[in-house]
Write a structure and sequence with these properties.
Blueprint: H1 18-21, H2 42-63, H3 66-91, H4 99-123, H5 130-134, H6 150-173, H7 180-198, E1 209-210, E2 214-215, E3 218-219, H8 223-249, H9 251-261, H10 263-268, H11 273-299, E4 301-302, H12 309-322, H13 329-347, H14 352-366, H15 372-384
Antiparallel strand pairs: 1-4, 2-3
Helix pairs in contact: 2-8, 3-8, 3-11, 3-12, 3-13, 4-6, 4-11, 6-11, 8-9, 8-11, 9-11, 12-13
Length: 405
């Protein structure tokens, strides 16, 4: 049984008035605090963040070719999705198998705007996107018209995914659906979204939307503009990581861990677990929507195959391998798995799928906390001088601490 299983029975702080303690979850270590178990101090995170910023904005553009830099920007999109999943799954215990839906909402919103902008730059204000002309469509569907506005498009990208996730999440969590049942529901949502998109010719059908030429007035064929997209994506990744960290180390983060481990006891204290879980789920959808919107101009296509069940599971594989309960583990895991997939599939195209499966089985079977738990085990062994810690206690159900690899 983990430490968090004793929620509600911990020794109260004598300096805190009894009235202030009533109805609150117990005080858990905040992320980055130096505790008796050897967690790292706060400054380590900021040093790691500074090093990451130097690598992203300085080293990578100087060393990588245009193609590899664009590929890295694509991996950053996966890292943004993984950061949100780390909050919902790692801290909240919600196995989110449908993040492709919210990724697709942001992606299709951006794609619709870009297709309209390209058509009007090419043929005037009444021109239709090229695929609609090929399909013989005579007029623009009504719900496309608002996406001619960049402001409306950005609002949809930022607000629609979290609102949809919050509404869906609260309906599900309020009925006390959790665990494998929630995972199945979220996966079914991704399958339904992909099937719906295939049946809509005005959204490109199974081919999706592609062949974008501009991005808010900038030509995507210009290498300088492609590099600008890379910098935007790198900045978005750092921003989402900081947002997730803020949630993790706040009172909300403590409450989220308490709901994960002792939901009924938290409800007894007067909190609404459904509301807490829905908010975390909405934050994960917010990150996925941003990633999807950036993915479109970087890759140049979005289709139903990119938002269905398989991509949603692929997001989780990187998170699980990196370490879902840590802050940077999901990001590094998602980027690492995407890089390995690209590298090894180029050399061994028919064997990569088997290698990915073996890696996932090994990590889940022997390191439930992900690869990041290796650093946690080493640090705790060094700080306590005791026997080796078991991987199962260093990531999946541990206390609300920030383990920065």
């Amino acid at each position: 049984m983990t430490d968090t299983a004793t929620i509600g029975t911990t020794t109260p702080d004598p300096a805190e008035p009894a009235a202030g303690r009533r109805g609150r979850p117990p005080r858990l270590p905040l992320p980055g605090e130096l505790t008796t178990e050897g967690e790292r101090p706060r400054w380590v995170f900021w040093v790691a963040l500074a090093v990451a910023a130097i690598l992203i904005f300085g080293v990578a553009p100087a060393l990588l070719s245009e193609f590899r830099l664009n590929l890295l920007a694509k991996f950053f999109c996966f890292g943004i999705v993984a950061s949100g999943i780390g909050l919902a799954w790692g801290r909240g215990g919600m196995l989110t198998l449908g993040q492709g839906v919210y990724f697709g909402v942001g992606a299709y919103a951006m794609a619709m705007y870009l297709k309209l902008a390209d058509a009007r730059d090419r043929g005037g204000p009444d021109a239709l996107p090229d695929f609609m002309q090929i399909a013989g469509m005579r007029s623009l569907p009504g719900y496309w018209e608002p996406f001619a506005s960049p402001v409306f498009t950005l609002v949809v990208i930022l607000l629609l995914p979290p609102l949809l996730a919050f509404g869906f999440g609260y309906l599900v969590f309020n009925r006390k659906v959790k665990g494998a049942y929630f995972a199945i529901l979220s996966q079914a949502l991704a399958a339904a979204a992909a099937i719906f998109l295939v049946s809509r010719p005005e959204l490109g059908g199974s081919n999706g939307l592609n062949r974008f030429t501009g991005f808010f007035g900038f030509a995507l064929s210009d290498p300088a503009n492609r590099q600008m997209l890379y910098f935007i994506t790198g900045g978005a990744l750092i921003g989402v990581v900081l947002l997730v960290r803020q949630f993790m180390q706040s009172r909300f983060g403590e409450l989220l861990v308490a709901v994960r481990d002792q939901e009924e006891r938290v409800r007894f204290l007067g909190y609404d677990p459904a509301l807490v879980k829905s908010l975390a789920y909405a934050v994960a959808a917010f990150a996925a929507g941003i990633a999807g919107a950036l993915f479109v101009p970087i890759v140049g296509i979005i289709s139903p195959s990119a938002i269905g069940i398989a991509p949603s599971i692929a997001f989780l594989i990187g998170v699980a391998i990196g370490g879902r309960a840590t802050l940077l583990g999901p990001v590094l895991g998602a980027i690492g798995v995407a890089w390995a997939q690209t590298t090894f599939s180029e050399a061994y195209p028919s064997q990569w799928t088997y290698l990915q499966g073996v890696l996932f089985i090994v990590v889940v079977g022997f390191l439930p906390g992900g690869l990041a738990s290796l650093f946690v085990i080493r640090r705790r062994r060094r700080s306590t001088g005791s026997g080796p810690a078991t991987p199962a206690t260093t990531g999946s159900t541990g206390s609300n601490t920030e383990e920065t690899p």
